Amino acid sequence: MKKFLVTSFLFHFICVIVANLVMQEQTYHQYYNETNESGIIEKTMNAVGLKNDLIKKYGRISGVELGFGFFAPNVASEFLPVYYVKQINIDEPQIITRPKFLRTKESQIRYSSAVGFLMKKIEKDQDPCFEDFLDLYVKCLSSKVASNYINTDEMVTQIRYKNVPTLKEIKIKGVQPSYGLLSQHTYQFNSRNHE
Amino acid sequence: MDYYHNILINLILEIMNKTLYKLKKLYDIVENFLFIDKGYNEYFLPLLRVGLGCLILIKCAAIQGNILDFYGNDSFIPTEISNVLISEDSFTLPNIYANLSLQEIISEAEFIKVVFNIHIVFLISFVIGFFTKVSGLVTFAFNLVFCLTGHLFSYGVDGFITILLFYACLAKTNNMLSMDKQLGIFQKDKFSINNVFILRAMQIHLCLIYFFAGTAKAVGVNWWNGESIWRSLHINSVSLKIDFFSNFPLLLTILGISAILLDLFYCIFIWISKTRKVTLTLTLLMHIFIGAVLGLPLFASVMMLFNLIAFYIPYQTTNLLNYQSAKL
Fold first, then answer.
1. How close A125 gets to chain B, by Cα (Å)?
2. Listed residue (B83, B307, B316) closest to B202, CA to CA
């Protein structure tokens, strides 16, 4: 029994180390080389079978697949969808940055986490199919927000990202943080219910 | 020729014997490290169960009003779309609902709410230590299903909850402060693993977490010059006017470098009894900072709990919970 446990222990932590090495290599390449290609570590792990389906499933169940490079090597920009909801018979559109139905801080964090996926929009050499998927993703977010407003006629969703100036920029040039526009999407609604 | 041949074979055999002897010695060291109890305070196990269970309950209470916004086909990102991103889609709630052919009995939304409430019932049972093993395993399974269903709405905290629940399910967490103990249920638990083994697994896991967090930060330049701390101050800040902190670049740089060093050397200093308390205090302070500044209180709480049960409670010689223990 002890030998079995020692072997399991070693296997468990090899999985932790492999998952993190692969993830760190990916992050490094994405950050410095702006590529999504597999690195040497990932290729090696695939070749020796340390990334097969069974190990992936074990990783998901035990949590060992989790990478620990939080906020590294750099703190990423925040993404913020801004929804302009135009309702029938109301001239001024409602501007929504955080949906009101997200009642708690925890719910808002989870929503932000889902919005953070849109960071993939700024990645280079994106597959056109994946770009379509990201547009569909924005449409889903918008549709959900629109469904909480009666008589929505039109909705414009802007995906913005927070531009945080460096310490030097703010000190010397006085640059202030701002929200840059990444993309804009317009949706038409023709009834009470969203499309 | 035979003479040299024999010498060569003897030499190889001698090297192999020496290597095997050294490996055996190494194995003994590993086995002793993993199994020998040096009088660790066993309260870390019930505290793992109660602390973790309470934090998951807080998480559930915080999102229960938005359950349908995060899980299922009525959520922000319907499961049929989010499923495109994961390979194993068989255990998402909408798939379970479809596979069980419950369409004529209840709606998908009602099904998700029912499962969520069952999850909470088992979670409470786990916290109070009632049929701990069963309730722990069910909680673990539900947690996985919810994580998989709402994977786009997950963040670090869900991963750490999964890790801790995995250890909690393997360990004998009902040995103290539990209904099982009081009612005499499952006292001869054959399915749990040695307490010291679980403790070591959690300790090594925690060391790896900080080590990899440290190396990931160290490879970039922005944690060394304070820029990352500066950027992190902007996360979740509704007001953009926090440039006040830019007047203290040295402080931001010191904080950034401290975070790297603490992460990198945690795995060394936490094992040395003289530096353990300082390391632990600094780590807890770092998590308080993360909770307050980055607006991630639940994440910070889970990490603080992880630290306390791995490196604080087991080394406490005085039994702070003796009174309750005697009562139970």
1. 18
2. B307
B205 contact A CB<8A: yes
Nearest Cα residue to B61 out of B128, B120, B145: B120
A136 and A168 assigned to the same domain = yes
Residue A128 located in a structural domain: yes
Is B217 in contact with A73 (Cβ distance < 8 A)? yes
Tokens of A173: 């040039």
C-alpha pair distances (Å), A141 with each of A130, A156, A182:
17, 12, 16
pTM over 0.90: no
Looking at the fold, whether A91 and A179 belong to one and the same domain comes out as yes
In a shared domain, residues A53 and A131: no
Residue A194 lies in a domain: no
Domain shared by A119 and A179, yes or no: yes
Q: Of residues A187 and A176, which shows the higher confidence score? A: A187
B77 pLDDT above the threshold of 60: yes
Q: Express each pLDDT in A114-135 by its tens digit.
A: 998 888 877 777 788 888 899 9
Chain A residue numbers with beta carbons less than 8 Å from the beta carbon of B221 are 73
Helices (H), A105-179: 105-115, 128-146, 167-168
A84 and A10 in a common domain: no
Indicate if the pLDDT at residue B129 is higher than 60: yes
Chain B residues whose CB is inside 8 A of the A142 CB are none
At B323, the pLDDT band (50, 70, 90 cuts) reads: very low
In A, which residues are within 8 Å of B89 by CB distance? none
Is the same domain home to A23 and A109?
Answer: no
Tell whether the torsion through CA atoms of B165, B168, B174 and B178 is positive or negative.
negative
Model ipTM?
0.86
* Residue of B81, B160, B166 with shortest CB distance to A62: B166
Cross-strand bridge partners of residue A82: A158
Residue A162 phi, psi dihedral angles, 5° rounding: -80, 125
pLDDT > 70 fraction of chain B, expressed in percent and rounded: 91
Q: What band does B328 get if pLDDT is binned at 50, 70 and 90?
A: very low
B311 shares contact with chain A (CB less than 8 Å): no
Q: How many domains does chain A have?
A: 2
Q: What are the residues facing A2 on neighbouring strands? A: none
> What range does the domain containing A31 cover?
2-62
Flag whether A116 is in a domain. Answer: yes
pLDDT at A150 over 70: yes
Q: Does B191 touch chain A (CB under 8 A)?
A: no
The answer as to whether A124 is a domain residue is yes
Taking only residues 41 to 60 of chain B, the set having a beta carbon closer than 8 angstroms to any beta carbon of chain A reads 59
- Tell me which chain A residue has its CA closest to the CA of residue B137: A61
How many residue pairs bridge chain A and chain B with CB atoms within 8 Å of each other?
Answer: 183
Inter-chain residue contact A6 with B31, CB threshold 8 Å: yes
Pairwise CB contact (< 8 Å): B212 & A141: no
The pLDDT score that the predictor gives to residue B89 is 59
Q: A50 and A94 share a domain?
A: no
The pLDDT assigned to B191 comes to 63
